[in-house]
Hints:
The strands form two sheets. Strands 3-2-1-4-5-6-7 form a seven-stranded parallel β-sheet, sandwiched between helices. Strands 10-9-8-11-12-13 form a six-stranded parallel β-sheet, with helices on both faces. By secondary structure, the protein is an alpha/beta fold. It has helices spanning about 10-25, 40-50, 65-85, 95-110, 130-140, 150-160, 170-180, 190-195, 210-225, 240-250, 265-275, 285-290, 305-310, 320-330, 335-340, 350-365; strands spanning about 5-10, 30-35, 55, 90-95, 115, 145, 165-170, 195-200, 230-235, 255-260, 275-280, 295, 315. It is globular and about 60 Å long. It has two domains: about 5-170 and about 350-365, Glycogen Phosphorylase B (Rossmann fold, 3-Layer(aba) Sandwich); about 190-340, Rossmann fold, CATH 3.40.50. The termini are close together. The protein binds uridine-diphosphate-N-acetylglucosamine and uridine-5'-diphosphate. The site of uridine-diphosphate-N-acetylglucosamine has 25 residues, from helix 1, helix 2 and helix 3.
Amino acid sequence: MTSTMVCFGTRPEAIKMCPVIRELKKRNIKTTICVTGQHRQMLDQVLDALGIIPDYDLAIMKPGQDLFDVTISALEGIKSVLKEVNPDIVLVHGDTSTTFAVSLACYYLKIPVGHVEAGLRTYDVYAPFPEEFNRQATGIIAQYHFAPTEMAKKNLISEGKPQENIFVTGNTAIDALKITVKDDFESEYLNWAKGCRLVLITAHRRENLGEPMHAMFRAIKRVLNEHEDVKAIYPVHLNPAVRKIVDEELKGVDRMRIIEPLDVLEFHNLMAKAYMVLTDSGGIQEEAPSLGKPVLVMRNVTERPEGIEAGTLMLVGTEESSIYESFSCLLSDGDKYNQMANARNPYGDGRAAERIVDVLEKLVK
Ligand code: UD1
Ligand code: UDP
């Protein structure tokens, strides 16, 4: 094998593939970067902040796209790029529709796939939706599985993947934090929150759109109203369906700033300085433990149980009452807070990309 192609399409994939791209380039392995552009502005924010210049950009995003749109456009768009570049291996990441569609295209063209962040499972194909399916389907296609943890490896083995093709590497999210987080970070948001406890909020999951998201926001509003020493920053995902609910529930809440998505440098550094996080995001569940930030995970299940076991993450469901109680409790119970903040990070030492490229180098020879 002599050439690698790295394909991704959304914000979290870009953040977690960046360390791999840097490592590939550092070792002079021929690397082609192709983005589907499933996300536009949120992807470009990462590319700009981290200095990644794609060789190909399929530019597939259209506002209000559904799962058919993304899957069809990515599958169709990637075909000619794969035929032109004809890489020896394609690296995909995680569980998005880009990941699935690109893997499927590789399968049709019989190009080997390396799956970064492989083996995470809930075994409930509707939660997270459609990510659980995307990840399992990519796992069926992939030849090489880069599992972030032993638990992920165990899942893959139990599904019959050959043990010699599974590599436990840690999660490249931790590598990314090493690039982004700086001690001397300053921000207007930190100045604004001075003297208060700063809570970071994000939410975007498809299965939470509708009543679950309304319930989350009602709970958060109630807690903020009751704690004058707490301020919240919520950079809202660009999905119009999310924005509509934010508009309906969170307009004019005291001590809360509703802002545009932050670039990754600012978001990671703010998280490093925050008191705690409320989210339904996947990636934030990996990053926060390594920054020692307790996270209330506003979901009913998670494919990232390691952080729950370690003690940094708490699964609080999507009911107003459970989120309200857990959030209030964490703000008033210092012992519980310290326990969560001091838990062990289960996602590796920030050298996942090195391990992935070590494996690729052996394949490349
Ligand atoms: C996608 C992934 C999800 C991942 C998330 C990260 C799928 C099916 N879902 O979900 O796994 O957790 O990205 O954020 O692959 N939009 C913009 N500009 C952007 C990005 C999004 O306007 O830069 C709007 C568009 O109107 C788009 C909508 O957001 O229709 C949803 O984007 P989409 O990629 O379809 O789904 P996400 O919910 O972002
Ligand atoms: N993130 C960011 N800016 C923001 C919110 C999140 O850079 O305003 C980062 C966050 O640190 C994490 C990733 O985006 O690395 C998570 O993306 P998202 O929650 O959209 O997707 P998921 O991880 O759930 O797939």
